[in-house]
Recover the amino acids of this structure.
């Protein structure tokens, strides 16, 4: 006996590095069969008292154990989901399996006893491989969920309000920053339309603009947004419309909105100051002073407001007293520069009466009046600008943290293909310093092979001004190549990065590896099932041939008829398996073409079929094998009966078969123009095997039946098309 136990390499699944096999089998011979080929490297546990609270990678049971443990097994499978927890059932009775819905639902595979060790071993191997891939896939799912959680934390902790909208502006998602920006919580905004709580003047303008959105074209809006306190706040919203990949129609809008009230206030102040300077250039600017050649302050304005000194105090002060002692030498140099060249300017801190140093932009011009020289100074307070610069630096630092804390590779290139920015992950993966990358092309940094891989997609972005998404293999070094999911898109309206593209590449090498392994496993399973169907078909052909020999060895006509009918039924089932192993699907059959072959076979074996016309009309549809088998057997019985009995008193005739699918319901009609049923025919009184088989098959299909005389015999059934599950779906 070939057990092959010593050559099988079982996967390492459990924490101890070996799979755990739980045996709950009452028959000692079956236990012996299983154990005799299993290597010592596999942990084997037996259970006679139940499987509840047991840890295992595969459970093998027989019928008695299943009946005693089916509730525990269901609970274990539910608890393990979505991880695959396989259960193999040993059964001596295929019919018992098909009639037990609970077994069909819980069993992942069935081996009919007695079975060869080789078959049992292959089933155990297949289930353990599926268990291993399930565990690996779940681990990958947890890693992806963690990555998603990290990105979600970035969104939810952003000071900008992140939101998603339908094309008409209705909120689909709102980040927690909405509370700070608008006073509304995300729950209060959900379902509202963003255009409804804008200033009426802005809403009317922007409703027109949203109709012209283009797929993936970034839009930037500035508008006044109404807060929960019913006042208005200036905000800036950067929006990316997302279009349907096939039609380009906008299906969603993603937005990032921030408060720009202070910036608007500052812009307004600058405009007002410019208007003031334009109108007052001949007289008084915001902070104005006039100094004569003896460094006396002749005229001034707003010094009391800006620096806190009274007019009386200014009269007694030297111009250098408005500057800190450490800055006075610099101030003198600018006064000399203005005297010699005619003008000078600088950013300087002026000393307020309170001791506060206030930043100013100072521009000085020299002129003469009569025989005296003067210097006039125009000073602009930079406090608001410095504050804005500080906030801008804070935003820059935030963006830098977002870019450098991701594991994805982030980079920016200009039209000359030179790197303008790369994140820390990029430098770490390629083991480069920033100086080795910035200002250089891909070829200069990574070599010609790398540049040839990335250049085509860089060109598409620059030429079309649209985003591209791709999967690419990048050589990390001379020993390793990794697969990345990459998006590249043009940067628009980004000061300092005009005519640049941004690329974000995420490493998907491990995910693709797992997907390929799963595909290989599925391919092996399909090949095995095709071989099973082929062998079943051949075995049925052998049985049919044996019945043919038995027919030739008897002279009893009734025995010959019964053997012939049984042989046709076996051929009907064999034809199913032939179709299955020739088909791409191992559970679906194109039923119309199958019935055509079936009817050709019925005609060939029927007596006096030459003068009988056989017509078939059918819709093209697939049928699950567990419905196809009983349906085919029923058609075989009815048509064979028509050939044998319907035309006993006629020289010729016609049999019509039609197959139709309507709204997921299968309609089958068989009609002949023969003698029909006798007037005194009663289905209950008729004890023929044919009618008994037909009734059993109709029950199995859960079908509605109609039989009547209509210029001959008419037979029709209808049943709902279903995907019947269970081990028989692939082992019939």
């Amino acid at each position: 006996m070939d057990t092959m136990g010593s050559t099988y390499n079982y996967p390492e699944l459990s924490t101890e590095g070996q799979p755990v096999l739980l045996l709950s089998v009452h028959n000692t011979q079956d236990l012996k069969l299983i154990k005799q080929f299993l290597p010592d490297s596999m942990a084997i546990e037996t259970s006679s008292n139940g499987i509840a609270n047991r840890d295992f990678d595969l459970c093998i049971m027989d019928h008695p154990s299943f009946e005693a443990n089916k509730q525990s097994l269901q609970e274990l499978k539910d608890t393990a989901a979505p991880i695959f927890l396989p259960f193999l059932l040993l059964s001596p009775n295929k019919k018992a399996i098909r009639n037990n819905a609970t077994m069909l639902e819980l069993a992942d595979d069935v081996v009919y006893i007695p079975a060869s060790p080789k078959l049992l071993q292959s089933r155990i191997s297949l289930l353990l491989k599926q268990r291993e891939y399930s565990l690996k896939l779940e681990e990958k799912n947890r890693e992806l969920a963690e990555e998603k959680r990290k990105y979600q934390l970035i969104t939810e902790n952003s000071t900008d309000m992140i939101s998603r909208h339908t094309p008409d502006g209705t909120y689909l998602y709102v980040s927690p920053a909405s509370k700070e920006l608008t006073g509304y919580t995300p729950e209060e905004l959900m379902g509202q339309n963003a255009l409804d709580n804008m200033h009426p003047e802005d809403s009317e303008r922007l409703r027109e603009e949203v109709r012209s959105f283009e797929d993936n074209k970034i839009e930037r809006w500035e508008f006044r947004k109404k807060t929960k306190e019913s006042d208005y706040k200036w905000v800036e919203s950067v929006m990316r419309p997302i279009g349907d990949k096939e039609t380009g129609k906008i299906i969603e809008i993603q937005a990032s909105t921030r408060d720009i009230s202070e910036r608007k206030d500052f812009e307004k102040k600058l405009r007002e100051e410019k208007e003031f300077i334009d109108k007052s250039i001949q007289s008084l600017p915001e902070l104005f002073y006039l100094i004569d050649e003896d460094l006396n302050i002749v005229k001034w304005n707003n010094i009391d407001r800006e620096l806190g000194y009274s007019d009386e105090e200014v009269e007694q002060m030297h111009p250098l007293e408005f500057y800190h002692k450490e800055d006075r030498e610099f101030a003198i140099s600018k006064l000399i520069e203005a005297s010699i060249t005619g003008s000078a300017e600088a950013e300087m801190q002026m000393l307020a009466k309170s001791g506060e140093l206030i930043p100013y932009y100072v521009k000085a011009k020299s002129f003469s009046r009569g025989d005296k020289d003067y210097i006039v100074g125009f000073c602009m307070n930079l406090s608001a600008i410095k504050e804005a610069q500080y906030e801008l630096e804070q935003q820059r630092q935030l963006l830098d943290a977002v870019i450098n804390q991701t594991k994805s590779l982030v980079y920016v290139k200009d039209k000359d293909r030179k790197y303008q920015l790369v994140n820390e992950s990029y430098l770490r993966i390629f083991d480069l310093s920033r100086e080795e990358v910035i200002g250089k092309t891909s070829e200069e940094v990574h070599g010609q092979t790398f540049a040839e891989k990335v250049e085509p997609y860089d060109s598409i972005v620059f030429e079309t001004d649209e985003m591209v998404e791709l999967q690419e293999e990048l050589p990390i070094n001379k020993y390793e190549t990794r697969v990345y999911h990459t998006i590249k898109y043009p940067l628009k309206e980004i000061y300092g990065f005009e005519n640049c593209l941004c690329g974000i590449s995420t490493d998907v090498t491990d995910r693709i590896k797992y997907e390929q392994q799963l595909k290989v496993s599925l391919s092996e399973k399909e090949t095995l099932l095709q071989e099973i169907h082929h062998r079943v078909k051949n075995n049925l052909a052998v049985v049919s041939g044996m019945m043919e020999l038995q027919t030739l060895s008897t002279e009893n006509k009734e025995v010959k008829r019964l053997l012939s009918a049984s042989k046709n039924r076996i051929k009907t089932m064999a034809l199913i398996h032939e179709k299955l192993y020739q088909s791409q699907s191992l559970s679906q059959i194109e039923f119309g073409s199958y019935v055509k072959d079936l009817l050709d076979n019925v005609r060939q074996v029927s007596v006096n079929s030459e003068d009988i016309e056989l017509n078939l009309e059918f819709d093209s549809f697939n049928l699950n094998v567990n419905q196809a088998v009983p349906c085919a057997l029923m058609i075989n019985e009815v048509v064979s009966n028509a050939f044998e009995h319907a035309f006993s008193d006629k020289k010729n005739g016609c049999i019509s078969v039609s197959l139709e699918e309507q709204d997921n319901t299968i309609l089958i009609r068989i009609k002949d123009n023969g003698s029909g049923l006798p007037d005194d025919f009663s289905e209950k009184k008729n004890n023929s095997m044919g009618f008994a088989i037909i009734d059993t098959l109709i029950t199995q299909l859960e079908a509605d039946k109609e039989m009547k005389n209509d210029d001959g015999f008419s037979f029709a059934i209808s049943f709902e098309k279903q995907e019947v599950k269970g081990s028989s779906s692939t082992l019939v």
About this structure: Residues 1-15, 726-732 have pLDDT under 50 and may be disordered. The CA atoms of residues 323 and 350 lie 5 Å apart. The chain is about 45% helix and 25% strand. Residues 406-507 form a domain with the Beta-Lactamase fold (CATH 3.30.450.20).
